[in-house]
Amino acid sequence: MIENKVTKIRLTFCVILVGISLMLAAVVTDHWAVLSPRVDKFNATCDAAHFGLWRLCTKRIYMEGPDPSGKGCGPLSLPGDINCTYFKHFTSGENAEIFEVTTQKEYSISAAAIAIIGVGFMVVATICTLLSFKEKLDYFLKPAALFYAFSGLCIMVSVEVIRQSVKRMIDSEDTVWIEYYYSWSFACACSAFVILFICGITLLLISLPRMPQNPWESCMDAEPEM
Fold this sequence. Notes:
This protein is 51% helix and 15% strand. The protein is α+β, with helices and mostly antiparallel strands and 226 residues long. Strands 4-3-2-1-5 form a five-stranded antiparallel sheet. The chain crosses the membrane at residues 12-34, 109-133, 145-162, 182-206.
């Protein structure tokens, strides 16, 4: 590949590495959404919850006064006892009965499965990109670009599934949660989608043959890159 093209690919790949880091941070952490019950009494404890793709965490917080941010029980930065349970938000059981929460098993499983597929696309894309730097293997760049774009789309679908799950949970008549907001893991997932999708399309455009510069020149007449 010509030097100018290699430089563009390397710069794009550096940006992609940021997107990869954000996506991994979103998948493995559990601060996608924070749920809060109604707080009618102060100088008492309340239970807030936050969850991700793999576990649900509840935190018992002592509330001395109203939350300055207006989000009910919290903020989560206040000291309190934390109890995290893996996959508990995928099933009904004692934890759901205590907090009277209607859990959305299908939503959570779908979001986690789609995110894992996205991680798989991302790994394959990274391998293809590294191979494309070798001599006469630049044809790996096109599939790498598509895989990065697919990875971004997968994490965006997971974001929408989680958003719908939270909405249904809040709208349920059986729930105690009345306040919610999306936290930093959710923001990481959204940022990863933007970076991976845009950079995937950028890599695809870079990998395309040079367009003819003259009316009589065809793509086959263009100067070879190897």
